[in-house]
Every structure is written in C-alpha cells, then in structure tokens.
Write a structure and sequence with these properties.
This protein is α+β, with helices and mostly antiparallel strands. Helix content is 52%, strand content 13%. It is flat, with a radius of gyration of 33 Å.
Length: 526
Amino acid sequence: MSDNPTSNAQSHPDSESSLWSRLEAFFFTEERPVGLALVRIVLPLVMLIPTLHRIFRVRELYSLAGATAPIWNNYGQPDFLPIPTAPVAAGLYALLILALISASVGWRTRTSLLISGLLIPYFGMVDLIGTMTKFVVIATHAILLLSLSDCGRVWSVDRWLARRQGVDWKETGPAWPRRLVQILIGVVYLGAAATKMHTPAFFSGDQLRFWMLSNVNAVNPVGEYLSQYPGLILTMSYVTIVWEILFLFTSWKGTARTIMLSLGLFFHLMTSVTLGLIVFPMVYFAIYFAWYEQRDHLVWCARWHSWFGRDFRDEVALTESSAPGRSGWRIPSLPAWAACAGCAIGLGVWIDHTSDPFGEHRPEGRYALQPISEERLAQLQRNDQRIHVSDKVFALDVGSVMFNDNLVDRKTEFRHGESAVIQCSLLPPHEDLYLEVHLLNDQQQILRRLWQVVSRENLRGHFWFPMEESLAPGAYSVVIKINGAEAGRRSLELLPHDAESREDAAVSDWSESAELPVATALSPVR
C-alpha cells in the first residue's frame, strides 16, 4: 500500500484502524501514477506485435469481403454488430495502430486508450478463431482501466505540451485505477486456478506435457526437454495452482509481495520458454508494472542517482511538482491528432487497395480456386486404412516410483526384491483397449505376462513386475501388446544381489592376486 495515507487517517489513529478508513486509503489515496504510466507505455507496444502481424490480412479477417468468424453467431445473434466493408475495416485497423502508438507515447492519452479499448475487442469478436485470445481479453480490460486513470499525467507528450504552454498540470490522482488493475490480475489467477481444479489432466501432468511437446505456438526446445521429467512437471503444477490461489490475498505488501511477484514473473517466463507463448507473457510483464508504486519510484531514483550527492527525494519533489512550466509556442493537440488519424485511415485504405489479396485488380481477374486431381481426391476419401496400434502409444516407460497415477522416475536397472513399474501412456482419443505386457529374457522367452483393459477415458495403464529371486540376473525386455499386436518394447537389466556382487568381486580379487606371483616368477624365465 502507499506511504501517503490521507491526512484524516493520520490525524485520527482510531479511524485508521477501522476497516472503512483503510479501504478509503487503499483506493482513494492521492499518488503519482508512475506504475500505470509504465503500463501505459509498455502494454500498447506489446499489443502492436499481433496487430502489425495481421496488417496485410485485414480484408480476409475482418471485412465482408473475407471469411469472418464473428462470436455473436455462436449465440444466435447474427446481426449483433455490423461487419465492415474492406475499406472501412482497413481504415479502422490503421486507426487502432495509431491509437496504440499515441497511447504509448502519451499523446491524447485518454482518447487513444478509449479507441484502443474499443477496437481491440471489436476486431477480436469479428475474428473469433484467430484474433480473440485470452491475452486480448486481459489486455482489453487493462486498457479500459487505464483510460479511466490519470496515467497520461506522467512521462507523456500531454504532460510536456501542458508544461510547455504554461498549464497548471496536476500530476497526482486517486489510486483506485491501479488497484483495479491489480485486482484484475488476481481475479484472473483465481479463475485460472478454479479451472485447473476441474481439469484432471492438469494434475496428472498430461496437459502440460502435451503442450510442451507441441510447437503450435512457437518452437520450444526447453519444453521438449523438460517433458522427460514428469516429477518436475507434477511439482510445478501443484506449485502453480497454490500460487494462483494465494496471489490475490498475499501480493500487496512486505516479503509476501516480493515472493508472489517474483513467482509470477518466473511463471510467465517459463510459459514462454516451455510452451512457446510470446505475447501472453509479455502482456503480463507489462501489467505487472501496476505494482510499481510512488515509494518504489523514489527508492529507485535515489539508488540510481545517489551520485548527485544529495537527497534525491527533494529533487523529485522540485522537478516534478505541479507548478506550471514556462509558457511558449502552443500546439493544437486535438486538431493535430485528428489530422494524424485521418492520414492513418487513408494510409490503411491505400495499403488494403494495393495489397490486393484476392487479385481483383489483376489483368487476369480475380483468383479462382483450382480443382484437385482425381488421385488426390481418391486418397482423401479412402477409408480402408487403419491406425496401427503403435500410433496409439505415446510413451512406454519403465521405473519404480508412482505419484498421482504417474510414473515420476525413469530407470532400467533393478535388483532382486524391487518392482519394475511399466507405464504405457496412450494418445487421446482412443477406444477401449486390451493391453498385455510380456517380460522376456535375452532368449526372447516369455517369463511373465500381465494384462488389463484401459477404458477410453484413461490415458495410461500400469503393470508391476516383482523382481523375484527366481529371475536370474541379466538383460530382459518388456513388450507391450494392444489387441494382440506389438506396440512397443523397452529393455531393462536385473543386477545381481549385493551379496552376490560382493562374492563375485572377492573371487575376482583372489584370481588377480593368485595370478600375480605366477606372472612375476615367469618373467625372469622369459
């Protein structure tokens, strides 16, 4: 919480302890919005990444000339919002880009944020399949909250213009917009935890493992490597859900604030390197600046500018006061911004016209779909091919430690008295399967046989082979069969018992010591 409680709370200690006074100080304390200013600078730049990526596909994605997928059709409201024509969509998209840039630099800040907060969800709802994502929803809420704040009063073009024109520019405002951004993050985490609680695949590690092995978002070799360690995946799953539940209640002050924010930054960084997410973690990195308070700003300024040789708090109070600056030449901010908006809209319409994705301006005419060959058509329509049983197996692992219906270790060497756990992981979806596991010796003779039926809702089957004294030390093979057909195999080795190992070692040492005198005696003869 802020270090600047209201004067009323300071003068009346009894009222400070009351819940209402604490809530009033929590939401309505006057502060310089340095944290929200950082959010305003970074978040629009992050949203420019997916926005610029689609700049040459506006006609296909967001206009009547393309193939839109509006969200309101799913709710039986086909005319809920109008879908624009291609020139209108291109102009609005260019206006969105200008609004994001001007919001980041703080020029006509509130207007730019309102336009961004309206156009981002609109384009997302027009293209539900490709544009409407989780980070779009979160960023939209954050941008709309920024439009209600005074984030443009700090580190912005608006502030510079006001001081240049001699306007009395107040740089403080109530804390409630920043608090709402913080609560937004905590509520999203709490909802994510509730969703995970109803997802069994999350607690078994299957969901994370399949995401790590997928390159749908981006190439993630770190995730592919960590997918080999199910114990680590399960541990991180439980840590994640506990952190998401506690975040809203413990991230406000003290050591708990530092721990929770650090875990949050680490969590989103790991989603980038293990799951291939790019924009989603960057959105959270941007809105995490909402925890950057005025006292943090003073501390960092004093730390980085200690070489001035005096208390930097006084310098901050002097240079960033609300006193008006020197009056100079005046810039008509609103007309200039409107002129830039008109130029951006015209540029967007021109780009859409010249890109001509459908070939409407070609001398040959509009592009036309070409029929596929008869051979390709026959290949697509054939249904006489069956999936081999080996393609239904995700992994065949051998180990000894089970946790939460999952094999958490991998080993291939066992001793007498231990049990080898065979785990057959299956790819969803699959039908009810009859699984058999055979334990074979080095001569491919079946020594043990186990079986079970794995129903369609289960993703793995487990088999236990006790390493009994009747099994001789040596190399063995584990063969998995599905409906009688071999689907995979693994090798394991049964090591001799410790007593047998010591006896063999003693015999080996005695043989070496017995041969040594003979070799020494024969050496002179040679």
